[in-house]
Amino acid sequence: MTGNPPENFIEAFELDTGSTFYFTIRVEAIQKVEADELSGFLVGKRLLIVENHGINQTVLIRQAKSWGMVPVSVKTGHEALNVLKNNPDFDLIILGMNLADIDGINLAKRIRDWERSRAEIFLDQKPINITFFNYVVNTDLVKQVEHSNINCAGFISKPLKQSQFYNTLVQILGQSLEGAIKDYGKSLVSSNLLAVTPSSNLKILLAEDHVVNQKVAIQMLQRLGYRADIAGNGLEVLEALNRQYYDVILMDVQMPLMDGLETSRRICQEYQDRPHKPWIIAMTANAMQGDREMCLTAGMDDYITKPVRREELAKALSECKPIQNGNGHESLENSSDFATNGHCNYSSEAEANNNGNSALETTVNPPESPAIDQQVLESLREYDDEDDPFVNTLIQDYLADTPEKIAQIQASIKTQDIQGLKEASHTLKSSSAQLGAITFSELCKELEYMGRVGMAAENGTRIECFTSGIAATGLSKLEAEWLRVKASLEQELSKETIKINN
Fold first, then answer.
1. How far is CA 95 from CA 66, 105, 111, 133, in A?
2. CA torsion, ordered 257, 263, 265, 266, to nearest 10 deg
3. Most CB atoms closer than 10 Å: which of 18, 112, 130, 153?
4. Which secondary structure element, helix H or strand E, spans residue 46, and what is its range?
5. Candidate ranges 25-39, 49-63, 139-153, 178-192; pick with highest mean pLDDT
6. Are the beta carbons of 151 and 127 closer than 8 angstroms?
7. Where do runs of H (alpha helix) occur along 10-161?
8. 158: which strand partners?
9. CB burial readout 157-189, b (16+ within 10 A) else e
10. What are 49-108's pLDDT values in tens digits?
11. Full strand arrangement of the beta sheet holding 129-135
12. Would you say 220 and 306 are in contact if contact means Cβ atoms under 8 Å apart?
């Protein structure tokens, strides 16, 4: 035993139990900042907001005023330069990236040029803190800023979070400009909720047949700093690979014409004697026992479940490397827990539901529960812009597409098409969950399970769900729930329209 133990410590001797020790570290305490002092730190600070989206402008102005700041807002780079020439005494400038007349980086360069010319006359002129207002985890922007000699003070991320905005302002206005961009680069990962730095050079192919799922995935990828091409089925994937290489394929398992499993097998066969096989990430709404093994056997490399969560997608993509100088992928064979340990990302709850329990035994939410989970919609609303009402577009697409899918289920039951029942129910299950129609999604899951069981059964029992009337009963429940979902989503569209008009 070493060190200085507390007075009440009783020393005990036991064989083979390791060591017990104490130590003391003497460090310099940080200066205490009183809460009142911190709350008044921003009062009177002058803020120039250059942002062409009215909603974003309004949010920034209201938040700044609530802290006692003095905001001035304009929508174009030309207006911003005129304001600065007439009144240069600003403490901070927030630049939106997509202005009507100039992009944010070039505007920042013009502001610095103006400051240099003014400093020849006003020798005590100090540079104004410049920040960029942009979507989170855009490492391309960080690199552009680092190489532009703008001397950027930091970044404010969309969607705007009050606490992050406040902390950023306090940090920027409480320190000198020198080295600020380096400080931001160091803190980017630790301060970001995703804690992932993407390799935005990845060439990604999204294989997904449903338009709602396509749009959600593309929007997530863009927010993470990636772009992707789209294939609607397995045949289109193979055609795309014949035209160019891809580092990553986000592969839906259930697709028409050729599903993701067969497509992965074909890719593996094609690349047996060729380098640079794409890294295949399975995306499936099944999360049922045996799905992981099927994906592994088919040659897939990783596995995420629908509805896809941005954090899981970011983590999966962070493990991929682009082909560099024609030398192939870097250690991709060992970069996924899925490949080495058989790990998959479906939840323990989903796994528990599948340990001997069929989807028919799933407890569906009671009728009085809301048809739409508002938390799901609110999380999607983070992707909305004033000129791009993303969620409204998703809802409109879903309302237009769902009756067709229900009609396919109806036709499958009428013609006793077990595979058609499975495929139509699966697609509808996934897109419904994306928009928060949880009960409706669970009812689709029940019908899908009937189809899966039927396809795996002997010929004599393949159509038992049809002959027994179970499928027809499930369809009746589905149709009734659809009326609730449709009414709720139409109300959501009306509500958002009223907000915009006001």
1. 20, 8, 11, 6
2. 90
3. 130
4. strand 46-50
5. 49-63
6. yes
7. 35-39, 54-66, 77-86, 104-119, 139-146
8. 135
9. bbeeeeebbbebbebbbeeebeebbeebbeebe
10. 999 887 788 889 988 998 899 999 999 999 999 999 998 889 999 998 878 889 888 999
11. 70-74, 46-50, 92-96, 129-135, 154-158
12. no
* pTM (predicted TM-score): 0.51
CA distances in angstroms from 322 to 201, 203, 239, 266, 269, listed in the order given:
7, 7, 21, 22, 21
Can you name the residues that pair with 304 across neighbouring β-strands?
283
What are the distances in angstroms from CA 442 to CA 286, 308, 362, 371, 482? Answer: 11, 17, 8, 12, 12
pLDDT tier at 496, thresholds 50, 70, 90: low
Runs of H (alpha helix) within 336-383: 337-341, 348-354, 374-381
Q: Rounded to an integer, what distance in angstroms lies between the CA atom of residue 182 and that of residue 23?
A: 35
The more confidently predicted of residues 336 and 476 is 476
- The 8-class DSSP code of residue 277 comes to P
Three-state SS at 73: strand
3-state helix, strand, coil in the chain (%, to 5): 50, 10, 40
How does DSSP assign 395-417, residue by residue?
HHHHHHHHHHHHHHHHHHHHHT-
Residue found by looking up tokens 């174009």 in the block? 76
DSSP label of 199: -
Helix pair angle (310-318, 211-223), 10° resolution: 60
Distances (CA, A) of 395 to 271, 373, 392, 500: 40, 13, 5, 16
Neighbours of 464 (CB within 10 A): 15
310 with 194: CB under 8 angstroms? yes
Measured in whole angstroms, how far is the alpha carbon of residue 459 from the centre of its chain?
Answer: 43
Q: Which residues lie closer than 8 Å to 502 by C-beta, 6 or more apart?
A: none
Q: What tens digit of pLDDT does each residue of 1-56 get?
A: 556 666 776 666 666 666 667 777 887 776 554 544 555 778 899 999 999 887 78
Tokens of 195: 């804690």
Q: How far apart are CA 77 and CA 134, in angstroms?
A: 16
- Residue indicated by tokens 């000198």: 176
What average pLDDT does this structure show over 481-500?
84
Nearest to 409 by CA among 365, 362, 461, 450: 450
